[in-house]
Design a protein that fits this description.
456 residues, alpha+beta, Aminoglycoside 3'-phosphotransferase, Chain: A, domain 2, 3 domains, six-stranded antiparallel sheet
Length: 456
């Protein structure tokens, strides 16, 4: 393995955004997509590292790099390695998202709608970018890297990339152009062209939501308020979340309507959808054997779905939960339209039922109070039982508020209740597998929900 490949292997292995942790891989190749315009020394290049795993599968990871001829002590925390670059000779390579000057170059390139031999910087009209804003790398745990430009905009750099359009960009584009109030406006993006001529989306620039609060954290605060009041019901405490749940339902309904208008609607055979859910259940039982005792009830929900004939499908969020929502002074915003990260891009681009998004939110309303209850250990079984009862009350109240608002004045149409039940069951099975693999201590939360499938 070359010095360059060894350095890239070591850097990727330790990066928090690297999705292949725990798997054995080699650096198969490095592709240079282009150079960020505006500075020759040191150059800022965009490289794509191709990884090959032991099972033969491959992945592509994006690395914007500052290639300095001399060490830069200010960037020691972003040092990738020292090697002989094919274009620039011996260089000290640094991850460019940590370098403010390099990120300012990127912002300027988007503002100017620049284009180089390998990179295209796209800017949407309607907003004057603050080119004087100081870049700052967001330090939170993410699968991508986000750079804030003051209080004006945020650049999301996709680390794991795939040939083809990224739904986070294409969905935000149509919602921005439709004037949606429920997403952060898209200001522009960066793309390259793959060998087969298809686009490769590398990064997106969006409105920075300065007043935003995380929806999951707000919900947990509401549950905490309820648990702290011994004698009050969910609708009586000061932190009642039901009004916000209803606003979320309205926001999602409006976003779905705008996506229908932009991408259109199709239908799929309900039998095929139900069969896919049954297949997922069969695979899930292999991972979570406890699901077997509930399999008949789950299959009952899928069988009812098969009886509706056809299911309308369209562009949706596809990975929606409270953690993908932000509350601002101007209302709720939905974020991260990339879809389920574990799925290949081609699958994430496929239309799906809007009830999958609804089910994701309904399950999130169930998770919040039960997660909070589990975080507050209680030796007294009576107190623990009372807390679980109140968690159920909170979840039921907010699920009802959300679903009622989403359905609108006419309420759920005939057959839509069957769709909701099936997609909620499917989502809950997915959660059981996820928790078994990642957070075994949380597995009782979705298992308890599975046990309630089919009950009034």
């Amino acid at each position: 393995m070359s010095t360059r490949a060894e350095s890239l292997h070591a850097y990727l292995s330790g990066a928090r955004w690297f999705g292949g942790k725990g798997r054995t891989f080699t650096v198969a190749d490095v592709h240079r997509l282009g150079t960020i315009p505006g500075r020759d020394d040191p150059p800022v290049v965009v490289d794509v590292v191709e990884l090959e795993y032991d099972d033969g599968s491959t992945e592509l990871y994006q690395l914007p790099l500052v290639l300095a001829s001399d060490p830069d002590t200010h960037l020691d925390n972003a040092f990738v390695g020292w090697w002989e670059d094919p274009d620039h000779g011996w260089v000290h390579a640094y991850d460019a998202v940590h370098d403010r000057a390099s990120m300012s170059l990127v912002l300027q390139a988007i503002a100017a709608a620049s284009a180089t031999d390998g990179l295209r910087f796209v800017r949407l009209p309607g907003h004057d970018l603050d080119l004087e804003a100081t870049p700052a790398l967001f330090s939170g745990e993410q699968s991508n890297s986000s750079v804030l430009f003051g209080e004006d905009s945020v650049l999301k750099v996709f680390r794991k990339i795939t040939r083809g359009e990224n739904p986070d960009i294409t969905t935000h584009q149509v919602l921005t152009e439709a004037g949606s109030d429920h997403v952060a406006a898209l200001y522009g993006w960066i793309e390259a062209t793959a060998d087969d001529g298809s686009p490769v989306h590398l990064a997106m620039l969006q409105q920075f939501l300065r007043t935003a609060s995380d929806g999951w954290e707000i919900a947990l605060a509401s549950v905490r308020d309820l648990f702290s009041e011994a004698d009050l019901h969910a609708d009586e405490v000061g932190g009642d979340f039901a009004a916000e749940a209803a606003r979320l339902g309205t926001a999602l309904s409006e976003v779905h309507e705008q996506l229908r208008g932009a991408f259109g609607v199709d239908t799929v055979d309900a039998h095929a959808v139900a069969a896919q859910m049954e297949e997922r259940l069969d695979r899930a039982i292999e991972v979570v054997p406890e699901l077997a005792e509930h399999a008949d009830r789950l299959r009952g929900a899928y069988s009812a779905l098969a009886g509706v004939g056809e299911v309308a499908v369209q562009r949706i969020h596809a990975d929606l939960h409270l953690g993908q929502t932000l509350r601002t002074i101007k209302g709720w915003k939905l974020v991260d339209f990339e879809g389920e990260p574990a799925k290949p891009l081609a699958e994430r681009m496929l239309p799906d039922s809007p009830w999958r998004d609804v089910a994701g939110m309904l399950r999130s309303f169930d998770y919040a109070p039960h997660a909070m209850a589990r975080s507050l250990p209680e030796d007294d079984p009576d107190v623990a039982a009372q807390r679980e009862h109140r968690a159920e009350e909170w979840a039921a109240r907010n699920k009802d508020a959300f679903l009622t608002a989403y359905a609108g004045e006419s309420g759920l149409a005939p057959g839509e209740g069957v769709l909701v039940a099936a997609y909620v069951a499917d989502k809950t099975v997915y959660e059981c597998v996820y928790e078994a693999r990642n957070r075994p201590s949380w597995l009782p939360i979705p298992l308890a929900a599975v046990a309630r499938v089919g009950t009034p």
